[in-house]
Amino acid sequence: MERPRHQGMAKNTYMRWRLPLVCLLWEVAMIVLFGVFVRFGPEADAHWEEEKKELNLTSDMENDFYFRYPSFQDVHVMIFVGFGFLMTFLKRYGFGAVGFNFLLAAFGIQWALLMQGWFHSFKNGKILIGVENLINADFCVGSVCIAFGAILGKTSPIQLLVMTLFQVTLFSVNEYILLNLLHVKDAGGSMTIHTFGAYFGLTVTRILYRPNLEQSKDKQGSVYHSDLFAMIGTLYLWMYWPSFNSAISEHGDSQHRSAINTYCSLAACVLTTMAFSSMLQKKGKLDMVHIQNATLAGGVAVGTSAEMMLTPYGSLIVGSISGIVSTVGYVYFTPFLESRLHIQDTCGIHNLHAMPGLIGGIVGAITAAAATEDVYGKEGFIKAFDFTGEYQTRTPSVQGGFQAAGIVVSLLVAFVGGAIVGGILKLPIWGDAAAENCFEDEVYWEVPEDEESDAYHMHNPDKPASP
Amino acid sequence: MERPRHQGMAKNTYMRWRLPLVCLLWEVAMIVLFGVFVRFGPEADAHWEEEKKELNLTSDMENDFYFRYPSFQDVHVMIFVGFGFLMTFLKRYGFGAVGFNFLLAAFGIQWALLMQGWFHSFKNGKILIGVENLINADFCVGSVCIAFGAILGKTSPIQLLVMTLFQVTLFSVNEYILLNLLHVKDAGGSMTIHTFGAYFGLTVTRILYRPNLEQSKDKQGSVYHSDLFAMIGTLYLWMYWPSFNSAISEHGDSQHRSAINTYCSLAACVLTTMAFSSMLQKKGKLDMVHIQNATLAGGVAVGTSAEMMLTPYGSLIVGSISGIVSTVGYVYFTPFLESRLHIQDTCGIHNLHAMPGLIGGIVGAITAAAATEDVYGKEGFIKAFDFTGEYQTRTPSVQGGFQAAGIVVSLLVAFVGGAIVGGILKLPIWGDAAAENCFEDEVYWEVPEDEESDAYHMHNPDKPASP
Amino acid sequence: MERPRHQGMAKNTYMRWRLPLVCLLWEVAMIVLFGVFVRFGPEADAHWEEEKKELNLTSDMENDFYFRYPSFQDVHVMIFVGFGFLMTFLKRYGFGAVGFNFLLAAFGIQWALLMQGWFHSFKNGKILIGVENLINADFCVGSVCIAFGAILGKTSPIQLLVMTLFQVTLFSVNEYILLNLLHVKDAGGSMTIHTFGAYFGLTVTRILYRPNLEQSKDKQGSVYHSDLFAMIGTLYLWMYWPSFNSAISEHGDSQHRSAINTYCSLAACVLTTMAFSSMLQKKGKLDMVHIQNATLAGGVAVGTSAEMMLTPYGSLIVGSISGIVSTVGYVYFTPFLESRLHIQDTCGIHNLHAMPGLIGGIVGAITAAAATEDVYGKEGFIKAFDFTGEYQTRTPSVQGGFQAAGIVVSLLVAFVGGAIVGGILKLPIWGDAAAENCFEDEVYWEVPEDEESDAYHMHNPDKPASP
To answer: What domains, with CATH codes, occur in chain C?
Structure first.
């Protein structure tokens, strides 16, 4: 049964050979590279039984699996259900939101295991992986999910796969510069994940600017139930964010502290978001866009500092501010970015990830600079900032400076990388839809006849109303 | 685009200045009080590195974080997704259900950290928090979510914030009396969370009785998809309830046992609920209201006794009975409460929390009174009931008596507190909606044009049917 | 308000006395049997406090609860939300999908605790249960959920309860033969759960063949939002599958390795599924049926081998192949099975569980046969395959042979058992619906007036359009 929708096929969105080709090519490459490079790390290898004895470990509990696996699963849910459903708010792009997020994340984690592995887990020609690598791969892909938010509804799945390939690569380079060369702390990724991911995505969407996008304006809104689906994404991101920020912190008090700080920051963020959502609307009504997004800014904004001695009240302050900044962003900045800077940001990642990411980087730099042995204890101080080896003599204020440098580097890599990748994605070979077909699942998906179309048929006198 | 809905604005529901004011005032107070009082507990503080050595801890695994964090996350999901989505069953109140639950819980956990902290974690002028405090704060807020179920759709967000402030306070006082003065066991909160929360909420809704509520009767039902959204809430509550009841039990066998007992009780509860749902309906069809709610009564009813040696078959019996009582309650008691006692209980919390909570308290008292050293082992017996220090000589039967006293105290605090708080909420300054606008998101939320309104427009000859 | 739906009550679907009778009978039996047989295992019993000292355990962390509880909760979510929501894709069978899955699983886990307990945890006349038993009970019920997928929408709840009783019994017998008699490894259940469950279900649906099922063809499809609900199920299955395959592996490296292998396999599976979904459709569009189901085949296909040294690239290969096989199955095999073999497989479990399950069994046999002391280490080798006691001298190639035998046994038990149980379910006493009422919730559920019926009323001139 054909639906008389505007199928103004000015552009060729036919995926039949292109999408399979890219998917299979990518996957074959992964298999070959994994075959050459990837092996189990010592704690996942059957030899661990022997190694345990050499290391005098008395309990299987000492396996890193038990320290990190619960957090890993929470992060995994955030990437696939959290980001996936958060983007289902559009009335006719639910399949694309959750399905393409699934596709790009599933590919991205494989490529991230390799890229991050070469930089961080490479020994004797092999990448040795364990649960921490899985978390880091999910983190890396998180930055792609963020960028996806800016271009949601306007790109083909092939473009997303191409972008994922490049963005994961750039993420890993940037992460290496920050963590290894600058020796910066960023366990929850305010800089590496959010600032980088968001400004990368914003640059890409700027390059891909569509002047006629108002042609699909009727599809840029939500419907009642799509807003509830999006709340599933929101709540899973919100609830599991303490796991996100603590997942790769040091064992013990660091993980514990990260979770508490993030919990506090997020709680405060909800209240200021609600306050400003109501205050900035003429009729004083709450806006689901703010509740779905700005309530999460508190998690982003303590991404760097959560594992530090930020303290619970410090977290409340950071969370409160970021909720305000994010909500104000949705009301004033997003329209401004679109009309003046030609940045079409579907999900408003500038408000949810870019600005709170910057706040997070800055708060991290300040918190690091303010650290003292008194507050951390002598050993805790060294452990918290890993002031060992060549960094033995680094002072907190110098560390704060390097943290700040990390923000700048992340921004640079995001802008330059985003511009180049945006240019590549602009090539007319990737099968993106025409402006009037944006935000519409029918372009790339088999869409079932549904309630809406039932309603349509009611005007059709030769069809019975009841399906 | 205006919708010609009944906006009989007899009441002023304008939130623009009132809601932001309350939210921001509350949050500023939290920041100040956290600043003065709240610090990291020893296991979340960077000094733990040193303390570990003093305590001769050989592994980071001994940090309480690893004993409780997975359960904490499950509880967190129950509070925000579980309760939030459970209440989305109403056809036009999904935003309010999930959004206001989000708001009150996010505020409540902050205030609970303080209130419970002063009672239980106060040392040298500071409240020292760790993962157990986060769980307890979530628990405390759980009782507010329960009370919210009674007044769902009939109150303004400001009323909810005011109620949360008072209810968290009363919860903490009641909890202190039970746990510290009466030395009662109640790890899963049959008394402190469910009995208290439900009777508090029922008293509040009695005070706020709306004689003309049938004016919004058309919105008190569900639609097909809202019932499915509600099932998300139901299932997450059901699946994670073993974590709820075991989250703050003693390490080791207690946590293990609590999870098993709860698992068994809930499984049995599903079968008796289905049986009675079919049996009590003339056509023998199952009713989603029962499946969404009464299946959970088994978790409530073992809240006190789950960590005791209730045994798996004991759990099956308790779960079976509570499923029956709860389902019967929905069919017979809820209409009776409304028509005779003027208690309008939107979600039927009397059936899901009040009666099963009482059952839970009684089962706990009996199980405690029946405890013997033979069943628990000499050391296990002391550990299970904490018969140390001044309680060294307490016998099981005396403990059973104190447990029963705990039920009575919880009821008293609920009734008296609920009456007072209900009186405060009755003041005409909080912006609640008129009776004909209850159960309607449009009062406090920006609601998108949706399928339904598309259908509406089809009668509008100057609009095309297809959106 | 009556809906003029086709209620061609050729069959008596009246459940009022039959369903309650079966539910209560089943539950009473459970209570009696639990009372006679089931007790807490040593790690959940209050005596553990003393036992800990005897065993020289220095930490509560050594309790198995902490090794397995997070995985248990993930598996629990897979059974109730994963399978439940995966099957909500049908436009008018969401209540039945999630509700009946809830019912059969809640009963099944109780019966499974007994059946598996008698075979595996029976000591001195008592079944001693702990967290591992809970996981195994969930696993066992997983095989029933799979079979439910084949007959979804075509059976009464009583038939499902009867089938559950028998299938759990057969599962336990088959599992005992495989694990104890053949000494086969199958931690993720490629053979015991998926191969057995799927071929059992396919045999049952073959016996229950309905020649006139096209009468309800209009209800066999999805609507837009039902496809999104189904994606919740898909994603939770996909994300938590690493926990499924590692939940009952040996502590330490085995659990760690299982999670990594499953993660890799699933990631690869998504890409090949997307590729073939697009490739096999004339217009090149993606099909939600494939995305919802075939993306999971990678988890099934490493169910046996995940805890072995399959290696990450081996997992990618297995995942890639299974995604292809599964998607091809949906496009070509399902129609063939229905038209030629009269196997009506509502959810396509042949593609998601049967074929990938066989692949999983074969991959497991090969991986076991290829094991060497070099790859596993001397001790790791013995631990991985439990080559101790009477199996001390078993070689990898012999183990491979026994693994293959496990597949054959599972198939035999499934076919014979399925035929017998199918025969029992064919008796005309269970209240199943007529062909034209299949896939319709109204037969067994109170269904609310909804959007659709609002649309219906629009043709009713004496009703206003807006509800």
So the answer is: 69-427+434-443 (1.10.3430.10)
